Amino acid sequence: MADTIESRLQAAGVTLPEAAAPAANYVPTVTYGKVLQTSGQLPMENGALAVTGKLGSEVDVETGQKAARLCAINVLAQAKAALGGDLSKIGRLLKLTVFVSSDPSFTEQHKVANGASDFLVEILGEKGRHARSAVGVPALPMNAAVEVEATFEIA
């Protein structure tokens, strides 16, 4: 099998879910020229929020990384839907913003964000190397532990 995004997903044992519908008054993606911006994606798995709570008290770093990975899977699901089902149209992942629900003393947001970054580099290869912000926030929608948004270049 050719080395494609789809084949790397298969090798990683990942099946992208259907792109989630917005939970409020926004659209899941916006395309502007050759730029695709996703709305923030939560750590949803099998239609349910998989990881809730604050890093530093209720959630450990390893679980936070798993939550960030789930968010990244959902980012790719949104990108796939926006690109007509064709992930090969991704030119490059330009930027990830990772929001981490954190206790005030928690300072390892960057380690949590690696759950998303590592996964996207694994799946997208060199196209997945990206700029990133990892931001601690006091709360996220539905008490999610992590939320991730992405900006892609469209090939």
From TrEMBL:
Cross-referenced InterPro entries: Endoribo_LPSP/chorism_mut-like, RutC-like_sf
Record domain Endoribonuclease L-PSP/chorismate mutase-like: where: 6-147
SUPFAM superfamilies: YjgF-like
Entry superkingdom: Bacteria
Pfam families in the cross-refs: YjgF_endoribonc (PF14588)
Sequence intervals crossing the membrane: none
PANTHER family: ENDORIBONUCLEASE L-PSP_CHORISMATE MUTASE-LIKE DOMAIN-CONTAINING PROTEIN, ENDORIBONUCLEASE-RELATED
Protein name: RidA family protein
Species in which this protein is naturally found: Jiella pelagia
Biological classification of the source: Bacteria, Pseudomonadati, Pseudomonadota, Alphaproteobacteria, Hyphomicrobiales
